[in-house]
């Protein structure tokens, strides 16, 4: 068969690589179905159409499978041979075997020879499929050798490809820790598409010379190849092209181990910037050395230092003479009453339990062994300089970072609607807090994020007042609970132009997974920090900065527009990159509850932060940390490095499938409206102009454009649905309809929205179940309307109107009372939240005022500044509407009165709001 005989029409849908794995599986199943029909209808008039449909599907699959090891190119030649000879019955049998092998993943455990058509071969595939069902997933078979695929980039002929593939196959040994197969591609573009569409690729061998262009029209590469062309690479040497390819592969999938095989001057090549290559081989190096080097590199990521040590510890016989009766399971195994814990959990969890101070395992507070190594591996995985495990949640991680960085009276800029742990962290640190307002989404009772212009304006105010030196930290939530994501690099760059040593704390509690996807990764704190460090070190940036500075200096520096209406660039000689990120690893990656991490990219960490960070860590970390949580963080890191790309890709695919159905199903659209980019990000913050990532005609082809350019984007894996048309508020819908009726659990609601979050554990079956439930509910609402009387319909209409038209505007932060304003002249907005917080500890300084009976409003009308003495946090939305020391405004009261939620922390309905007495405000220091 000629190589291009069945590929004359490019499969442009390959460009929608977001859903490539679903496309791959669905197309194979459709091919199997078509072949079954064709075999039964060979004399039917529809047979001709079926043959054409099969030809199209095989052509599409051949392009996809060109980037996978199984089925191989030889396997596909066999399929085409059967098709061209019209042996459709035999072709159906081979395709059935192939599909079973893909579903059961038996190709990962043994060689599948599709040329075998006997019953024994089919029985093997069936047994594999049954075994997979019994285990739940092949990965649970811990005794099997983990499987990966090696990508080889070289312009090889078909016979040469087979020689190379066979050579690596012959290197396999039963004692090897891993087993792998080989994928060969012939061009620069094909190498990039392979690492995008094939998550099994864990290592890459770039060999000799290769052309730039692929034989396929790969539209998925448009955003990654901008500025590159075949012509631009014509004059590059073999080494230059290989290094460029290596850099781009690293940007897409930094976890992939890369190796260079060169036929040129290997010593000269080694002296270049080849930082992304693990090793260079000369072309005459034998295969066995390459084989062992590749396996060692994979093993370096596969190791789990602490989990391995914990497993070894659990096997050791020990005498327990320390303060933990449950250690080694002693208090349980000897119990006549508590044995059900072993029945439920198994014995290993108790065998692995010990006192943190008894020795035998590492110390989380002062790590020197396996925990230290596990944290170093975590730093590598998440692109940090240092990483630290936290076993009591991201609330504690946030307080650790704040305490390590902030001294009393340091000014902190913080988004007001961030997690409550940050507000309490400000109290503990004694920070002077300057709250930033996010843009409101009044129609959905939620906030977006803080506009960059708002941040710059605040920093500029401190600069003009001569207090910029007091500003220490900018604290923002990325991404927000609702999925709004910052352009992290742009925020950091422009803020550093105003204050070159500003420290950034990015609360990425819901974004730990983002580092393992090439679209998400650039908007993470650690990636932005590294990128900016490299950028400011380059000569190209110095030239860019010099040109910008000359233009900037010609403008009026006293005009706010000079600073606010144009991009700013920092001085490369003054700037310091200082970024911290906190991750709720347990929320979006594999970890037990409360497993979190702190990641650091701070050029001044060793000099300024290491000692106070250690003290803060000691302050907030238990002397008896849970070893099982630490072990789960270690394993979760390993999983993220080995298969994070695949799992996050599948998560996004699942979310896109759910969104696609919700966008297009008429009945679902009537009651449930998915909020898209334009709903959650105002146009002024969408520089790309992209309103939605999905178009019914062109598919999912706008996401990269928005994520590359916009100030804010929406994470598509978080699906916010407006339910106002149902006439049911979010809290009721969550509890009475989703949970009580169908067992569907969600985290967040607003007054008229519910949030569905996909994660790396979300399956296509889960998506199908959710869609089925939503359709049933939509039908229920439809029947409710049809069967309602006129008065009942009026009630429903009133509820819908209330939830869609009568939503109270979200209040901005009002102000701190002058009693808590360090700046007596009121030129800057910061407040001493710690002073206000502890002033309320004395009963004589506070009183309760009710606003449901007009008592509080009457006091305000007399001219009194009513000042909150506590945090007031309604759920939802879950952020403080009032903080200690804040003046109560009419807008805040209106919002509180309009809320129809029963859970408001810091508010006692029978008493009212806790506020400061007027006497306490006259002399707060005395309190």
Topology, pairings included?
Layout: H1 20-40, H2 47-65, H3 73-84, H4 88-104, H5 119-135, E1 147-153, H6 158-169, E2 179-185, H7 188-197, E3 201-207, H8 238-252, E4 257-262, H9 266-270, E5 277-282, H10 287-302, H11 305-315, H12 330-333, H13 340-345, H14 348-351, H15 370-382, E6 386-390, H16 393-405, E7 411-415, H17 420-429, E8 432-436, E9 440-441, E10 446-447, H18 452-464, E11 471-477, E12 484-486, H19 488-498, E13 503-507, H20 525-537, H21 539-553, H22 560-564, E14 578-583, H23 585-588, E15 596-602, H24 605-620, H25 627-664, H26 666-671, E16 673-674, H27 677-680, H28 703-709, E17 712-714, E18 718-722, H29 730-742, E19 753-757, H30 764-786, H31 790-805, E20 831-832, H32 833-839, E21 846-849, H33 855-861, E22 873-875, H34 890-898, E23 903-905, E24 907-908, E25 912-916, H35 918-922
Parallel strand pairs: 1-2, 1-3, 3-4, 4-5, 7-8, 7-11, 11-13, 13-14
Antiparallel strand pairs: 6-15, 8-20, 9-10, 12-17, 14-15, 16-18, 18-19, 21-25, 22-23, 24-25
Helix pairs in contact: 1-2, 1-4, 2-3, 4-5, 7-8, 11-15, 11-25, 15-25, 16-17, 16-24, 17-32, 18-19, 19-20, 25-30
Give me the secondary-structure category: alpha/beta
Helix content bin: 40-55%
Percent of residues in beta strands?
A: 5-15%
Name the overall outline. Answer: globular
Helix run count: 35
- Overall CATH architecture of the largest domain: 3-Layer(aba) Sandwich
Q: CATH homologous superfamily of the largest domain - what is it? A: Type I PLP-dependent aspartate aminotransferase-like (Major domain)
Number of domains: 5
Radius of gyration: 30 Å
CATH class (first level) name of the largest domain: Alpha Beta
In the sheet with the most strands, the strands line up as 6-15-14-13-11-7-8-20
Number of strands: 25
- Separation, N- and C-terminal Cα atoms: 89 Å
CATH topology of the largest domain: Aspartate Aminotransferase, domain 2
Low-pLDDT segments, ≥5 res: 1-17
Question: Main β-sheet, in a few words?
Answer: 8 strands, mixed
In round numbers, the mean pLDDT is 88
């Amino acid at each position: 068969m000629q190589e291009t005989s069945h590929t004359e029409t490019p499969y442009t849908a390959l460009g929608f690589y977001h859903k490539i794995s679903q496309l791959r599986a669905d197309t194979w199943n459709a091919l199997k179905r078509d072949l079954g029909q064709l075999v039964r209808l060979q004399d039917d008039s529809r047979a001709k159409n079926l043959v054409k449909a099969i030809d199209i599907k095989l052509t599409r699959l051949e392009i996809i499978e060109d980037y996978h090891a199984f089925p191989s190119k030889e396997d596909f030649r066999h399929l085409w041979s059967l098709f061209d000879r019209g042996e459709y019955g035999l072709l159906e049998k081979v395709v059935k075997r192939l599909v079973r092998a893909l579903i059961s993943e038996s190709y990962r455990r043994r060689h599948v020879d599709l040329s075998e058509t006997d019953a024994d071969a089919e029985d093997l595939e069936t047994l594999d499929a049954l075994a997979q069902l019994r285990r739940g997933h092949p990965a649970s078979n811990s005794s099997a050798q983990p499987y990966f695929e090696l990508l080889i980039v070289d312009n090889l002929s078909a016979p040469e490809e087979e020689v190379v593939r066979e050579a690596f196959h012959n290197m396999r040994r039963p004692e090897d820790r891993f087993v792998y197969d080989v994928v060969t591609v012939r061009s620069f573009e094909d190498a990039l598409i392979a690492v995008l569409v094939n998550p099994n690729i864990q290592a890459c061998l770039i060999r000799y010379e290769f052309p730039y262009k692929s034989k396929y029209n790969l539209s998925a590469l448009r955003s990654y190849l901008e500025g590159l062309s075949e012509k631009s690479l014509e004059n590059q040497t073999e080494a230059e092209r290989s290094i460029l390819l290596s850099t781009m592969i690293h940007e897409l999938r930094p976890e992939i181990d890369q190796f260079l095989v060169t036929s040129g001057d290997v010593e000269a090549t080694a002296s270049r910037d080849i930082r992304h290559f693990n090793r260079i081989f000369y072309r005459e190096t034998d295969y066995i050395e390459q084989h062992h080097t590749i396996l060692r590199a994979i093993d370096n990521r596969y190791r789990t230092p602490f989990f391995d040590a914990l497993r070894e510890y659990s096997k050791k016989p020990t005498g327990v003479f320390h303060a933990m009766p449950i250690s080694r399971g002693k208090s349980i195994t000897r119990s006549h009453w508590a044995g059900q814990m072993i029945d439920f959990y198994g014995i290993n969890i108790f065998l692995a339990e010990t006192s943190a101070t008894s020795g035998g395992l590492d110390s989380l507070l002062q790590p020197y062994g396996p925990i230290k190594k596990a944290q170093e591996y975590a730093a590598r995985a998440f692109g940090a300089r240092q990483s630290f495990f936290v076993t009591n949640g991201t609330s504690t991680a946030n307080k650790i970072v704040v305490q390590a960085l902030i001294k009393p009276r340091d000014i902190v800029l913080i988004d007001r609607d961030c997690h409550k742990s940050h507000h309490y962290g400000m109290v503990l640190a004694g920070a002077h807090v300057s709250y930033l307002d996010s843009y409101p989404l009044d129609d959905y009772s939620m906030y977006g994020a803080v506009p960059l212009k708002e941040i710059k304006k605040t920093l500029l105010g401190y600069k003009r007042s001569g207090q910029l030196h007091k500003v220490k930290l900018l604290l923002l939530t990325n991404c927000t609970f609702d999925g709004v994501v910052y352009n992290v690099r742009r925020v950091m760059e422009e803020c550093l132009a105003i204050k070159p040593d500003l420290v950034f704390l990015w609360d990425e509690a819901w974004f730990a997974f983002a580092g393992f996807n090439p679209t998400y990764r650039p908007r993470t704190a650690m990636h932005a920090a590294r990128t900016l460090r490299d950028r400011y070190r380059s000569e190209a940036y110095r030239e860019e900065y010099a040109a910008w500075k000359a233009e900037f200096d010609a403008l009026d520096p006293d005009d706010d527009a000079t600073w606010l209406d144009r991009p700013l660039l920092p001085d490369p000689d003054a700037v310091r990159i200082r970024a911290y990120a906190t991750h709720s690893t347990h929320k979006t990656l594999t970890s037990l509850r409360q497993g979190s991490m702190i990641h650091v990219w701070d050029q001044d960490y060793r000099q300024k932060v290491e000692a106070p960070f250690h003290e803060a860590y000691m302050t907030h970390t238990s002397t008896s940390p849970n070893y099982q949580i630490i072990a789960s963080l270690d394993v979760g890191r390993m999983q993220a490095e080995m298969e994070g790309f695949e799992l996050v890709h599948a998560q996004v695919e699942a979310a896109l499938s759910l969104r696609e159905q919700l966008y297009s199903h008429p009945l679902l659209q009537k009651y449930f409206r998915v909020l898209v980019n334009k709903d959650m990000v105002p146009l002024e913050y969408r520089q790309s102009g992209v309103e939605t990532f999905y178009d019914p005609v062109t598919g999912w082809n706008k996401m990269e454009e928005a994520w590359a350019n916009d100030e804010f984007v929406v994470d598509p894996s978080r699906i916010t649905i407006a339910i106002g048309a149902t006439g049911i508020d979010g809290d009721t819908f969550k509890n009475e309809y989703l949970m009580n009726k169908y067992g569907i659990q969600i985290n967040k609601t607003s007054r008229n929205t519910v949030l569905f979050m996909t994660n790396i554990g979300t399956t296509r079956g889960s998506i199908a179940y959710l869609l089925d439930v939503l359709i049933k509910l939509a039908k229920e609402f439809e029947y409710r309307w049809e069967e309602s009387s006129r008065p009942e319909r009026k009630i429903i209409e009133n509820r819908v109107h209330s939830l869609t038209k009568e939503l109270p505007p979200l209040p901005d932060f009002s102000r701190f009372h002058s009693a808590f304003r360090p700046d007596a002249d009121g030129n800057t907005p910061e407040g001493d939240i710690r002073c206000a917080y502890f002033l309320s500890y004395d009963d004589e300084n506070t009183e309760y005022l009710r606003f449901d009976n007009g008592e509080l409003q009457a006091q305000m009308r007399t001219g009194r500044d009513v000042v909150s003495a506590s945090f007031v946090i309604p759920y939802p939305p879950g952020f403080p509407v009032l903080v200690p020391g804040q003046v109560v405004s009419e807008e805040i009261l209106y919002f509180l009165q309009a809320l129809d939620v029963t859970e408001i922390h810091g508010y006692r309905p029978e008493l009212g709001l806790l506020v400061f007495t007027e006497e306490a405000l006259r002399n707060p220091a005395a309190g």
